[in-house]
Design brief:
Length: about 350
């Protein structure tokens, strides 16, 4: 039985098309998941436009943000059954004996390979998933929202685990993409005063972010950052996806403050890092997520504290992947969701 898949088939720009693929075989420790919904990530767009900076196993089915139903279980899988509603983590291949994996930080195992670039992803009917990647999805969370658990986990890791925001902190988030908006939403949940900073061209997405109760700023954020005591924001979360915003973050953060960089950006820096020394700043990176973060975020989605509805710009069948990708690429909407056919 074959089904349609969104396949990234070559390194050249625009090398994405619908192909018919076979239902995957599964191993003893895997399940076969029938995909209900899959989110389109900035990284899927980057592979499409060929400005990504990670190795891709061509041809590969795109998509790593997904939820669905188990339809088959491997011989050694005992804790999952056919019919279970689940969401899946993204670390499809890891070395269980890597010291980072042994410490529970398998997301930081350098040999890790993810769905959608390392192995076939979820923009299709069926995907092979190692059982260790799964989390039970409560009935209260519909699949079309559950497929966005992954970006919520990226934001949770950046804001809660890696920045440690406290109630009353003044927090600036740079960049109103999916991750920036979700970082702002989670910082609000932590009890912070939050402003999201973008460009004039981001006005659509900033308007959406307001639904999470944060302020929005286009242009100079200095006044907001220094409003309380003249010194700057307690934390700056940089989710902008370019290198130059680090310079801005160093200006906006207070002495002894923290900058967490969660947005990628391949450009070399063209400025001095001396403010980090002078202001005694902590510069922190944040990457991916692990098991306890997923469990917590699923709870936040189930109890309604975290609502992804505002960021969903539409749901398209995978045959219309191009429309879904385009709208996100142009910044018309924050997030596209696909449905297999
Ligand atoms: Zn993603």
């Amino acid at each position: 039985m074959k089904s349609a898949a969104v396949v990234n088939f070559a390194p050249e720009k625009g090398s994405v098309e619908i192909r018919e693929i076979e239902k995957p075989d599964i191993g003893d420790d895997d399940v076969l998941l029938q995909v209900a919904n899959v989110g389109v990530c900035g990284s899927d767009l980057h592979q499409w436009t060929a400005d990504h900076s990670w190795p891709v196993n061509y041809p590969v089915v795109l998509g790593h943000e997904f939820a669905g139903i188990i339809v088959e279980t491997g011989d050694k899988v005992s804790q999952w059954q056919k019919g279970d509603r689940v969401v899946s983590e993204t670390a499809a291949v890891i070395d269980l004996n890597n010291p980072m994996s042994r410490a529970g930080f398998y997301n930081l195992d350098p040999t890790r390979k993810g769905f959608g670039y390392g192995v076939n992803g979820a923009m299709t009917q069926f995907v092979r998933v190692p059982a260790r990647c799964l989390h039970r999805l409560p009935e209260a969370v519909p699949f079309e929202y559950a497929c966005l658990t992954e970006p919520c986990c990226v934001a949770y890791n950046a804001v809660v685990e890696n920045t440690g925001i406290k109630p009353g902190d003044r927090v600036l988030v740079l960049g109103p993409g999916t991750i920036g908006i979700l970082c702002a939403a989670i910082a609000k949940l932590c009890g912070a005063e939050v402003a999201l900073v973008g460009l004039k061209a981001d006005s659509n997405r900033l308007e959406i972010a307001k639904q999470y109760g944060c302020e929005t700023i286009t242009g100079d954020a200095g006044e907001w950052a220094r409003k309380r005591d003249g010194l700057g924001a307690d934390s700056v979360i940089d989710a902008a996806g370019v290198s130059i915003t680090l310079q801005l973050a160093m200006q906006l953060v207070r002495p002894r403050g923290k900058i967490t960089k969660v947005g990628w950006g391949p450009q070399p820096l063209g400025f001095s890092l001396d403010p980090i020394v002078q202001k005694n700043i902590t510069l922190q990176g944040s990457f991916s997520h692990n098991w306890p973060i997923w469990e917590r975020v699923v709870s936040l989605l189930a109890n309604g504290q975290l609502d992804v509805r505002p960021i969903i710009g539409g749901i398209w069948p995978i045959s219309e992947w191009k429309t879904a990708f385009d709208k996100m690429h142009k910044g018309e909407i924050v997030k596209s969701v696909l449905k297999p056919i």
